[in-house]
Amino acid sequence: MMILVENLNYVVDKELNVYESVDILIKKENEKTKIVIGKNLLEKENLNKKDLKIIDGKNKCAMPGLTNTHTHIPMTLLRGIADDMILQNWLNDKIWPNEAKLTKEDVYYGSFLGGLEMLRFGITSFNEMYFFSEEILGATKEIGLKGVISFPIIDFGTPESKDLNKLLKMAEKFIKKHKDEKIVKPAIAPHAPYTCSKETYTTCKEIADEYNTLLHTHISETRYEVVEMENNIKMRPIEYLENIGVLDSNVIGAHCVWITKDEVKKLAKHNVKVSHCPGSNMKLASGGVMPLVEMLNEGVKVSIGTDGPASNNNLDILEEMKITALLHKAHRWDPTVGDIDTVLKMAFDSEILGFENNDIVLLDLNAPHLRPVNNIKSNIVYSANGNDVDTVIVNGRVLLENKKFIFGDKFLNNIYKKIGKIKEKFN
Amino acid sequence: MMILVENLNYVVDKELNVYESVDILIKKENEKTKIVIGKNLLEKENLNKKDLKIIDGKNKCAMPGLTNTHTHIPMTLLRGIADDMILQNWLNDKIWPNEAKLTKEDVYYGSFLGGLEMLRFGITSFNEMYFFSEEILGATKEIGLKGVISFPIIDFGTPESKDLNKLLKMAEKFIKKHKDEKIVKPAIAPHAPYTCSKETYTTCKEIADEYNTLLHTHISETRYEVVEMENNIKMRPIEYLENIGVLDSNVIGAHCVWITKDEVKKLAKHNVKVSHCPGSNMKLASGGVMPLVEMLNEGVKVSIGTDGPASNNNLDILEEMKITALLHKAHRWDPTVGDIDTVLKMAFDSEILGFENNDIVLLDLNAPHLRPVNNIKSNIVYSANGNDVDTVIVNGRVLLENKKFIFGDKFLNNIYKKIGKIKEKFN
User: Are residues A215 and A231 in the same domain?
Assistant: First the structure.
């Protein structure tokens, strides 16, 4: 069924054009979802009300779906389990021991919770990396979000298997199985240069190339890993990845904080995509600031990720947009960087994940903090938060309406109950 | 009428104790509002249901009212009018010319909007500085918030009067008139050392001392003002304020970014209160970071302010708590600073403004991003935002319930309409 959103106060489209007092029509053409923006669409498009789902756009603003290009959604389960700790203690004492207790079923429910959180906050596409990928992909499809679900590889193993070769085979099988799905895409995720060997990276790259998927990896998140590599092999992580032939246009690198201008040029040269995770980087105090301005100047495609909810501690890209803007202004003592248009483009760019952004998010402007509207784009970036999202339409399907999930309260309460049960095993 | 909140999942009190599965009773004793926390209060306190307003606390967390210790709420009107600009251009080209157009009535409606926004976000007390103080105080009382409304003084005048002596007289009259009010308190606000002379500061200090009010002022927000003063009089702002006898326990200084360790010691010595405004400082890119850790180590009382919504661009202290934590961790490369307890104490400390914190804010935990609850204090600081506030009880009065203002939609729509009208005069 076609969807008509009538009488919207504002629309911001993915090219950042702003419209006032318009309608949006969401229709299917040859299996593809198309968005039409204009005045009086009911007449102009010659529509019949009975063929339409009609949504009232009064006191609302429409914008494209938001994208979260680096996350670990099952870590919702570990939200708040450890904060304000030194990274190594956080991992060794809290995160890893508790992760080891997670079953496939736990990961499924954690993914469902994370998916619901993203949907609630207007995120319609995301790039995931966590073990038990099959369960994450299943939850993503059930909710109806667009997800790149990347199968994580670590040389010393994951809870899925301690055997590297087995993991690589499982990853390939996972990709083969799901490569032709419509709204979810499988991918492969060698964890990071300090946890994966050269052979692991090159095998992953071959698999990504063969099946035409993304290769999702952590790059230069902390000083420690950079210094270690410099000491051991006299190369920095991006030099190394270039050297072993991994840098390419199907690579998406998360963090990229501790990189030089020369490394920025290499990212641009090989058309590597970057996921910037400012909230997580600040919270873990990994130090430094990702060179956003230098990357954009060189033409690197940069988008925004929340990272996992154990280090953020939510999946709110509206919040992350503001943090992005504030961090770079403060870092450079220059209020003109991290400007509204720059961060909006980063947050709308689902094409980085291979998804066309034909999703629509409505924000509820009936809130004191979103009044007046002197500049709707400013209100989105600097004043709004995830809870202002009112309605979310993914691929032509309404998944959230009037701030309510289509799944119903009973279903939700069951999820919350399962989640409450899982947390009892942590310490 | 007494209020009983039954079956709360969690309560965090102002000493940061955490309770599970308890009730809260809010009662009046000798005109004072008292909070009782415990299990089965209906029986224990021998209460009769018909004497009570009963609120269901299921799936909710209660916490004290939040405090916003530096703001300019009528600037809601200018929200989003200018962003991503160099401070001097922002002020000269956008803020000052448009502020000059504001009438008393505009400021009244802007204050009402700002007050509603703070109430929606669980802020029950605030420290204000803006011209047409009488109108701000009126709106604050109508809403029912606790406000310190400080009358601003600038040597070259404000829209209230261009004559400094007249302004000082008006300030004194304003303070005399309102000094015995219950939930609002008048105060005096010499703007900053670079806009007020020594004589202005000392006169303001005399008025503050005589009427037992706060003296609210900006201190060392930007490098520029510090360097100017060092060049001109060989003193830094806090040295100067000490030298002229202004530093004292009734002074609340906003920003205090560009200050030395020696100046931190002076703040501690004179028991000056500090309002930290990290979001605004980052957005305006004033550079540097307020020395929070040094201040706390010296025993300075530090709280959190949003600053005006033109430079933030909202009044969300829950958001500002997270920004505070992230900024200091990132700044010091140390995740243990800006920890949960530190920022919660800052946000609950309404005593800095002379208000006992006997207010109660309920957060709605029926949201994916607030599940599971591994640590309720972590969820408040790192996962929640202002819209998660469900119910606000100020001084024993319910002002927001189930996310709805007691004022009703018709009233609200009228405010929004007025605000929409006012913005037409800006350019």
Answer: yes
